[in-house]
Amino acid sequence: MSTRALLHVSAFSLSQVNSQRLFSVEYAVKLLKKLADDGNFKLGKVVHALLVVSSHASEDHTIQNNCLINLYSRCGQLAVARRVFDRLSQRNVASWSILMAGYLHNGYAWEVTKLFKDMISVDKIFPNEYVLSTVLSSCSSGRLLHEGRQCHALVLKSGLMFHQYVKNALLSLYTMSSDMEGVLETLKSVPGLDIITYNSVLKGFLDHGYTSEALDVFSRMLADGSAGDSVSYVNIFGLCARLKDLKLGKQVHCRMLKSGLQLDVFLSSAIVDMYGKCGEISGARYIFDSYPNHNVVSWTAILAANFQNECFEEALKLFLRMEFQDVVPNEYTFAVLLNSCAGLSALGCGKTLHARVEKRGHGAFVVVGNALINMYFRSGHIEAARALFSNMISRDTVTWNMIISGFSHHGLGEEALDVFQHMLAVEEQPNYVTFVGVLLACGHLGRIEEGFYYLQHLMRDIGLEPGLEHYTCVVGLLGKAGKLDEAENFMRSTPITWDVVAWRTLLNACNVHRNYDLGKRVAEHLLQLNPNDVGTYILLSNMHAKVKRWDGVAKIRKLLRERNIKKEPGLSWTEIRNETHVFVSDDTQHPETAQIHEKVRKLLADIKPLGYVPDTTSVLHDVEQEQQEGYLSYHSEKLAVAYALMKTPSQAPIHVIKNLRICDDCHSALKLISKVTMRMIVVRDVNRFHSFQDGSCSCADYW
DNA sequence: GTAGGGTTAG
User: Where on strand B do bases come within 7 A of a protein Cβ?
Assistant: First the structure.
């Protein structure tokens, strides 16, 4: 019966019968229960008042009074609930239990254990299954380990171990105290698990990284003939997402389809998340589109899936659709959006979102703060990122990592290491990612010994096992310092499977330091790993050119032509007054092409007296085009910089983003352009930032 | 009359 209907009946009784028999206790109980379930405080008070005037609120109606306590605590009115409880002349185990549940659900776990003691000592009531499961839950949610153990003893004494609710609460307690062995033990010894047990154990294992045990529980559940409900699948999709195991994810998805389980908003979010994290954006989009009733979370999940798969623009566009459907974004949504802006270096869009975030009071959330810092760093605005960091109310490991790696990518090694020391001083625990940033910083500063100290001692002291990324940083560190043989020896002597990135790091070092022999060996190795790797060919060709081995250059070009290997087209873009202008290397699409080319020619002429010599050897482009005179002046970053110089005020810094590594020629040209125009020019390439100012670059000519 | 499990950011 609906609340209104119940109330209608009550009103009817009120008018029909005299005030002595307003409505029966059964009615009152039914009505109060319904109101409690709905959390309807307003109507609840009315009914309470009716009960009082009809003298139904007398003390001998314990069940009815229990319902009142329940009503108020479910409406978040704990003080009122407590007053009703305290005035009872007769209370039973349910009165206690209801009040305890009230305190538990309103976040006062500690209060529950106090009530529990009073119940036993004052009223001499021995706990039943309701009380025990509530108290056990309070111990887990309040992290009250000691009390939890005492309750465990009581459970054994009471013989309620086999009660489903009690057993589940006990399992949650084990999970909370990270006693996964205890969980396994209970699973073995206690038969007859219901779906809730399976699901909470599944979640427990997942939260503690027991992935294989989680899978075991899932298969045991299926083997037991329990098909698994949407909660089970939400958990298991979460596992696939964490493992980034697309194959497993698809298997689970098939299983779910076969079981006939219908999508709900939780499930669709979890599946979207799984496909997103496993790198299959099409799967994520398909699931999202096949479920109609989305909420903030599921919208955020599809935005995140797009972000994770580098579909940054798509994420921002989808957000418009989300707003159009009147779904209100929360802090997670803003974090994803800001990170998408970071991916595009879309400062204008990022600033707009920043304003919205502050206006709505989302700025205090760590996730949002981190995303803002990321956005400003990736858009090249170091000072804005730094200011945000200093003003943050709460920080987490990600915040610190973000600042350290942000400074490192901008070539600010000293700053990065200062922040790292600061982090240690405030006893924030560094993690795997932290040390990647730290080792990068050491690389910029050429601090070899310090780098090795972090790798070999500090990391191990903290209990972190160095991984491929750290070792690659060390290769870069040695390579940058010109210790190429050491770098090679380090790679040969470290028992790890090196990837393309690591070898390319060494090859790049060989290139910069013109170590032709080692470079050739490394390049050959790289080409064995991937015979069509354009990046390797470019580096190899650059190296040949630098030592003037023109035959080598010609050979590589011929090879590329024969194999029809094409370089990814060079793209640069820059944001001017909220509009993004994109330039391709041999671009003539831009409406102002003629003026832009004229500007480039003028800039190059201006820097010639400063010693600029066009370097036709440093890039490997489409051969025919490259042979044309003046081709280099059409490089996309030069076009973008020229355009920005034309369109922005004379003091404004220029920000350009490009999809490839910046080439030698553009690098030396931009250094000089920054000098003659007295402008700061910040270029974000695939790997790092180059901040050109007064004739030099923040990368100190090593990238 | 009272008690248990779920989705989104790096």
Answer: 1-10
